[in-house]
Amino acid sequence: MLLAASVQAHAAAWVASPQLAQLFQQKGVTGTFIVHDVSADVYTVHDRARAETRFIPASTYKIPNTLIGLATGAVASVDTVLPYGGKPTLRPDWAHDMSLRDAIKISNVPVYQGLARRIGMAAMQANLRKLNYGNMDPGTEVDTFWLKGPLKISAAEQTVFLERLAQDQLPFQKAAMAAVRDITRQPGAADLHAKTGWCDGPSETVDLGWWVGWINKDGKLYSFALNIDIPDGATDQRVALGKAALTSLGLLPE
Length: 254
Prior knowledge:
CATH architecture: 3-Layer(aba) Sandwich
Structural class: alpha+beta
Shape: globular
Distance between the termini: 37 Å
Largest sheet: 6 strands, mixed
Number of strands: 10
Helix content: 25-40%
Radius of gyration: 17 Å
């Protein structure tokens, strides 16, 4: 829990947001949303206890997976085409060889699993420690640990990792960090970078959804992380709720 402790120790303030609480209540969603105003060192949050609880990162791990792949030379660039493996896929659009630039847009699991196998367990574990990423535990299966565990990270820890990436403060080559920032940039006028994630949740009928990233607005940096429970059959509200949360805090336009 070192990184979580660091978040608590160095934060100038934690502010429980009534706007966020109302938004989650209106949408009927259980979860957390946390935003860090980096320059002011203020955390604005809905459900701080959950924001400091670790969960499996799911496809939000494609961000550090890309970074580690570039840093170790497992892939030459984000535009290098990687094989998907040729096996049946959960989604038809995953069944294609593609670059990480294209794979991250559709959250292509087989391509990123192939990247993890190229990186290898020893390098993956060493770089998780370099990043101080969550519990830093990849277990024994190099291509499933971020989908099924044992790797876990909290929403608060996600914000720390992401703002360091946004500011070139991770212990990796600046070119690698710049490439990851490039492929996480979201369409639109706002300088918004983000990634979704979805995995099995706390019960057989409830999954876990993530939306994490950062936004630059008026010369200031804000990192954020959302995770929510998604009951079977429920509408996927990850991105819509996350954007509504940023809007309610004045970080995205109406």
